[in-house]
Design brief:
- This protein is of the alpha+beta class and 306 residues long.
- Helix content is 52%, strand content 18%.
- Among the domains are: 120 residues, no CATH class; 85 residues, Alpha-Beta Plaits, CATH 3.30.70.100.
- The chain is built from eight helices and eight strands.
- The strands form two sheets. Strands 4-3-2-1-5 form a five-stranded antiparallel β-sheet. A three-stranded antiparallel β-sheet has the order 6-8-7, covered by helices on one side.
- Strand 1 and strand 2 form a beta hairpin.
- 18% of the residues are buried.
Length: 306
């Protein structure tokens, strides 16, 4: 019932338009000039009411379709696909309806109609001028349409754009809003996601691997550190119990590079898990094996006797 209230105002405007077009002529007290003005106003309101009603119908249909899907769930890839497609396609259709309504409205006025005829008479020059002027705008709109179909990004995707990490918050015809992790908003043209490389961490799934690098002395015992990593992961609610690996990934001149690899259901959980594991592994080495912290060795040779 709430959705059908969207039709109330367009319906009232439509009834007013019908009255102005057909009922004013029966009012004898109204001057002829005012009658023509009211009839013209009725024609404009008729176009507005039809366009308004069409937009309301499109939005109600979208809400009814998307009501079956919950984007707040953890495994929401299919829902995010549909939300992205319906939202972007809705904006495209609404944009087309508004342009058509404006065109029909302008054609009601004699002066504008004459200008239109003149433009069609010189369609070659006019088309070239309009095409050059609207090239970038049309390209941006077409990019929004292409994003809706091919979906390199979706609503709530985790992306890295311009060295910023955040979530796709809005996808519009001409721009995309990225919600940065510190609550800033990054506004980017839609063409950016078709012309330049970017990272999408949730393109096929939300789960992600996290890494933590620890640097120790060559004397560090690896097996106790590996057991401690397992204990820490099992005690953390952010771990999804899929990946648990500790490896020596490099042997530098003075230190060993130890990498802890773990998995989580989403990038925010992976971030919290990495921070937790890094802190606790450092505390473990400080407490249990302080002699294994990175150190620089200096060998002193006694001076040779003369």
């Amino acid at each position: 019932m709430k959705n059908f209230r969207r039709f109330a105002t367009p319906l009232l405007v439509l009834l007013l338009a019908v009255f102005l077009q057909n009922g004013v002529q029966y009012l004898e007290t109204v001057p002829e000039n005012l009658q023509r003005f009211l009839e013209r106003s009725g024609a404009v309101l008729f176009i507005v009411a039809i366009a308004w009603g069409a937009i309301a119908f499109i939005r109600i249909s979208k809400l009814r379709m998307l009501a079956k899907y919950d984007i707040s769930q953890a495994d929401n890839l299919h829902s995010r696909k549909l939300y992205t497609q319906y939202n972007v396609l809705e904006k495209i259709v609404v944009f087309i309806i508004i342009i058509i309504a404006i065109g029909f409205t302008l054609m009601l006025f004699e002066g504008v109609r004459n200008i239109g005829v003149s433009l069609f008479a010189s369609a070659g020059i006019a088309g070239l001028i309009i095409g050059l002027a609207a090239q970038k705008a049309l390209g941006t709109i077409l990019a929004g349409f292409q994003i809706a179909i091919t979906q390199p990004i979706r609503l709530d995707d985790v992306v890295i754009v311009e060295n910023e990490w955040g979530w796709i918050e809005e996808i519009n015809l001409t721009y995309v809003v990225v919600r940065i992790w510190d609550k800033r908003r990054l506004v980017i043209p839609t063409t950016y996601f078709l012309e330049r490389p970017f990272q999408n961490w949730t393109r096929t799934s939300a789960d992600i691997l996290g890494t933590v690098f620890i640097y120790t002395d060559y004397t560090a015992p690896l097996e106790p550190i590996r057991k401690e990593l397992t204990r820490l992961l099992e005690s953390s609610p952010h771990w999804d119990k899929k990946v648990n690996v500790l490896q020596v990934t490099d042997a530098k001149e003075h230190t060993l590079e130890i990498r802890a690899l773990m998995s989580a259901e989403s990038s925010p959980k992976a971030w919290d898990l990495r921070v937790y594991i890094r802190e606790k592994l450092i505390e473990f080495i400080q407490r249990e094996h302080p002699q294994c912290l990175p150190k620089t060795r200096v060998a002193l040779h006694p001076e040779s006797k003369n």
